[in-house]
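Async update (no meeting this week)

Hi team, since we skipped the sync, here's where things stand on the single-chain job. The sequence we agreed to prioritize is pasted below, unchanged from the tracker. I ran it this morning and attached the output directly underneath so nobody has to dig for it. Comments welcome in thread, and please keep replies under the output.
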Amino acid sequence: MGYFLKSKSKGISTASGTTAERPAVAGKGTFRFNETTSRMEYYDGSAFRSITPQGTTAMVLDTATGDGSQTAFTNFFTTAPADENNVIVVVGNVVQEPDQAYTISGRDITFTSAPPNTHRIYSFAGFDSTVTGTLA
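Output:
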């Protein structure tokens, strides 16, 4: 069991130690400062996890080319975004407004008007990741 040390002006101290010093038996909800990673972490019942997201999120670039008449692009996205607001879509170097210029359904994107002929369409996806990895 950890201890809280409290001071009115100096803050609250909590358990801390290196990754190797993690408790062999931890209760769900146990949290501590990991001196190896310099992050707060908690035990979720199966593993210690960082309270703050760590590492990088893989961004995915998807592309197509407008033909002046096509508005729907089937399987445009490599992975289906959770929401229109979680991607950045650009047509001919102009950023498009979610829900106004396009909608998304699964891996498909539909524009309210056809992207002009030869204009490059591209998107950056991966902003909807909420994964907090298991710490080593």
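Quick observations from my side:
The chain has a mean pLDDT of 84.
The chain has no helices and 13 strands.
Reply here if anything looks off.
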